[in-house]
């Protein structure tokens, strides 16, 4: 019984894979023109953004502790760099909490797709920073947190304050926007 059920499988597979289709190019298409080269299936699309020099990411603690203190009001006692695959980061720790800097390196060819997927998968309310040259945007978490995201070449940057502060949302946003843009 089983061989009889599997007998049509090769025909179904051949039809599904296009074995019975006409591969000729439509009239007027570039491939139908005499002397036109067919596009290679192995040719990658052009990069949408330029790749950052890896030397600029050698130290993931891109901010000086004094910058965090001056702009966000968190006295930084220590920094803790970390590397996790294509993401580099630094935790700026103080007695009242920390600020996390994440640098996520994306393939320049697929940068737009990667950052779009990253943005849509983030929880909470999102809002663009109007007129920002680095296409910055806010992520407002349900817990009240405010995260700044922006893009530099093929790097997605996240600045995540996680501390007990007296700043309201507007004050936190103003402080985050005053931070120097890295990398």
Question: What's the helix and strand layout?
Answer:
Elements: H1 2-6, H2 9-16, H3 65-72, E1 78-84, E2 87-94, E3 97-105, H4 111-121, E4 125-128, E5 137-140, E6 146-152, E7 155-163, H5 169-178
CATH hierarchy, class of the domain at 54-178: Alpha Beta
Calculate the terminal CA-CA distance, rounded to whole Å: 65 Å
Annotated CATH topology of the domain at 54-178: Protein Transport Mog1p, Chain A
Shape: globular
Indicate the CATH architecture of the domain at 54-178: 3-Layer(aba) Sandwich
Count helical runs: 5
Secondary-structure-based class equals: alpha+beta
SSE run: HHHEEEHEEEEH
Question: Strands of the largest sheet, in order across it?
Answer: 1-2-3-7-6-5-4
Biggest β-sheet description? 7 strands, antiparallel
| Arithmetic mean pLDDT | 83
Helix content: 10-25%
- Strand content bin: 25-35%
Put the structure in a nutshell:
The chain has five helices and seven strands, in the order αααβββαββββα. With 183 residues, it is an alpha+beta fold.
Would you mind describing this structure in some detail?
This protein is an alpha+beta fold and 183 residues long. 23% of the residues lie in helices and 26% in strands. It has a domain of 125 residues: 3-Layer(aba) Sandwich (Protein Transport Mog1p, Chain A), CATH 3.40.1000. It has five helices and seven strands, in the order αααβββαββββα. Strand 5 and strand 6 form a beta hairpin. The longest helix is centred in the middle third of the chain and has 11 residues.
């Amino acid at each position: 019984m089983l061989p009889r059920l599997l007998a049509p499988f090769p025909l179904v597979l051949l039809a599904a894979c296009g074995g019975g289709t006409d591969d000729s190019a439509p009239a007027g298409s570039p491939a139908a023109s005499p002397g036109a080269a067919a596009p290679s299936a192995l040719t990658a699309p052009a990069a949408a953004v330029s790749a950052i020099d890896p030397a600029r990411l050698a130290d993931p603690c891109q901010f000086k502790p004094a910058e965090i203190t001056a702009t966000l009001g968190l006295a930084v006692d220590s920094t803790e760099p970390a590397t996790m695959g294509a993401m580099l980061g630094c935790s700026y720790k103080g007695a009242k909490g920390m600020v996390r800097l994440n640098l996520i390196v994306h393939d320049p060819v697929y940068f737009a797709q990667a950052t779009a997927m990253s943005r849509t998968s983030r929880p909470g309310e999102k809002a663009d920073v109007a007129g920002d040259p680095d296409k910055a945007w806010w992520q407002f978490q349900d817990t009240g947190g405010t995260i700044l995201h922006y893009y530099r070449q093929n790097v997605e940057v996240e600045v995540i304050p996680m501390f007990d502060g007296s700043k309201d949302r507007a004050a936190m946003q103003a402080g985050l926007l005053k931070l120097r843009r890295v990398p």
